Every structure is written in structure tokens, then in C-alpha cells.
Amino acid sequence: MAVGVYAVKHLYPTTILYTVFLVLAALGYKEWKKAYKNLQLG
Fold first, then answer.
1. Angle 7-13-28 (CA atoms, 0-180°, nearest 5)?
2. pLDDT over 70 at 42, yes or no
3. What residues form the membrane-spanning segments (predicted)?
4. Which of 6, 21, 24, 36 is most buried (most C-beta within 10 Å)?
5. Domains in the chain: how many in total?
6. Domain limits at 18?
């Protein structure tokens, strides 16, 4: 949501930065979830 606000305000470098942060957070969550599942299985 905030990324859209930055884009509308023409703050393109900030938009790109927060998009990268969002992608990194999603990838980190995916890896964490996989590691947690493997830990539970033994």
C-alpha cells in the first residue's frame, strides 16, 4: 500500500527501494517457513 503512495507522489527511488524490501521480506518468509517445516519433520 505504501509503495503505491510513493509511486503516486513520483518518489520513484523510494518506490523501487520499498519494492525491493517487500520482495526480500517475502523471500525470507518463504525460506523461514521451509526451514521451520523441515525442523518440525525432524
1. 90
2. no
3. 12-29
4. 6
5. 1
6. 2-41
